[in-house]
Design goal:
By secondary structure, the protein is of the alpha+beta class. It has seven helices and four strands, in the order E-H-E-E-H-E-H-H-H-H-H. It has one domain: Transposase IS200-like (Alpha-Beta Plaits, 2-Layer Sandwich), CATH 3.30.70.1290. It has a four-stranded antiparallel sheet. Strand 2 and strand 3 form a beta hairpin. The radius of gyration is 16 Å and the shape is globular.
């Protein structure tokens, strides 16, 4: 399988899971460390709009910068390798932590951006991590609604929904009918 190239100026759904569906986050500190490494490796090459980290997988909605200082695929590889080295050292394990290659889907319509943000945020409920997706701490949902400083492109995301109120309502109204609009979103995670 040849991965989709990460082209400047384009939006992508980036996702991956643990090798053999193993957990890649086993403690709260793992999530924070991954996000720290993400900031170091990915922020120079891409803007982030939404994310969700779960026990054995993650989702990001990004847009590749117009002139990234290095190939975005290399930056993601560096992120995954740095995290795997630290994780393996901490837990006395060896070998690959992530499935390869990491998955990416190019997003070309505003409707897909809109639905993907909802899909990413509702993922903890889909996988029964929580009863209410709004309670999951390792998602961008609450950050996008807060007034706290963030590296996320909050104003642009809320703009896709028309308002903060519509952002909230859209997430709460997302039912099975909405899933059909997301045919290219992976169901295997």
């Amino acid at each position: 399988m040849n991965p989709v190239p990460l082209l400047p100026g384009m939006y992508y759904h980036i996702y991956s899971r643990g090798n053999n569906r193993e957990n890649i986050f086993t403690e709260e500190k793992n999530y924070f460390y991954f996000l720290k490494l993400y900031a170091r490796h990915i922020e120079p090459v891409a803007e982030t709009y939404a994310y969700c980290l779960l026990g054995n997988h993650f989702h990001f909605l990004i847009r590749v910068k117009e002139e990234p200082p290095k190939p975005p695929s290399r930056a993601f590889s560096n992120l995954f390798n740095a995290y795997a080295r630290a994780f393996n050292k901490m837990y006395g394990r060896t070998g690959a932590l992530f499935q390869r290659p990491f998955r990416r889907l190019q997003i070309v319509t505003e409707a897909h951006l809109y639905h993907l943000v909802i899909y990413i945020h509702r993922n903890p409920r889909k996988h029964d991590f929580v009863d209410d997706f709004r309670e999951w701490p390792f998602s961008s949902y609450n950050t996008l609604l807060s007034d706290q400083p963030t590296r996320l492109h909050r104003d642009e995301v809320l703009g896709w929904f028309g308002s903060r109120e519509n952002f909230i309502a859209s997430h709460l109204e997302y039912l099975d009918s909405g899933k059909r609009a997301l045919a290219s979103i992976p169901e295997d995670l």
